[in-house]
Write a structure and sequence with these properties.
The protein is an all-alpha fold and 398 residues long. The protein has one domain. The protein is 70% helix and 0% strand. The protein is built from 17 helices and no strands. It has helices at 2-19, 32-51, 61-65, 72-91, 97-118, 125-143, 147-164, 168-196, 205-219, 226-236, 239-248, 259-269, 283-294, 308-343, 353-357, 366-387, 392-395. Helix 4 runs antiparallel to helix 5 and helix 8 (168-196) packs across helix 9 (205-219). The two termini are 32 Å apart. 31% of the residues are buried.
Amino acid sequence: MSVLLLIQVFISPLFAYRYFNNEAHFIMHIPEYMYMSFAIPASIFFTIGLFIPLSKQKVNSSTFDAINTNTDIIIKISLIFIIAGIVSTYLTPYVPPSLAFILYLVKLLKFIGAFLLLFSSFKYKYLWITGVYILFSYEIISGGVFYDLFVWGFFLFMLIENKIKSSFQRKLVIIICGFLIIYFIQSIKGQYRELAWSGTNEKSNTEIFFDVAVNEKKESHYLKDESSFNRFISRLNNGWILSKVMEHTPAKQPYTEGETLKNDLVSVLLPRFLFPDKAITGGKENQRKFKKFTGRRLIGSTTMRIGALSDAYINFGPIGGIIIMFLLGFLFNLILFFIVKINKTITSFILWTPFIFSYAIRMSDIQVILNYTVKSIIFVFIIHFIFFRNNKKSVTKL
């Protein structure tokens, strides 16, 4: 979370200001000193809140060495998770909107199944894990939104490294290769989406993607092409939205004095069947919020979110916003503390951390982050109650 936040709201904006002289694809709307005076301390205080030590218990290599998923029942549960996650992917178009989020969480179970297998001695575990990620890659390429592929790929890399403990040099080589792959995909993403989403191409989206990738590779100019670097930095740069919010608020739209945050918390904590009129996290409501606090109107079905830092800023201004970011980091710290505490008894519970935080690391709107995090925690405990309550000896520390 801290690294991605640093890349999105500090490093990328710094490139936009200094390297591109604020003439990148997405420009920064306020002077650098004004932007950095909020973005830097807000990011620092979020990180402080996230890293304040709450316990002497720390997550390290021994935490992963203690994971034991070798029992037959855990392996069977892992395979059930993988199959349920894959099947759910193909059921998505046929379920009502009210069940869409639950199905989305079920889809993510395939990764937990893969992670559980990783720490088992199951003979065919790498075949199953490879299958999960190949099918997921196909799904991502077909949809044209690659963020989740990068995130879940990096989660797998982190877990593998905690298991095999390779050298620093090998880790560095893998990270550099991963960066080059991300850079390459970002360089062709715009052209691919234009062809895939036009509706005029007879080829499948996967075929289109590989055609575009092969053509780009043949030309071999993407590493030297400054326009590719411009697009890459602009894609990473969420700071331009924050700069637009800071330009517009409070000059044209006053701070909400906590009203937006209060509504977000109500929306997250109160069930919809009791409060049917509570705020919706997406669609027209998101477009209305974006326009209100940036002054920029989104066209058609375009979705952009102002992000957590902007949310903190529009509620209480710069100083209050920094405090809100600290509290958000501290909240995540508390959740991690309880995950580690539970992991003392259920030694594989640490593997649910990517599941619980997979949306939080995006630093989307606070409502979206909290909504996903709270619901995912509830879902995790329901899954444990269903699958593991009668098999406690299989998952507890030996």
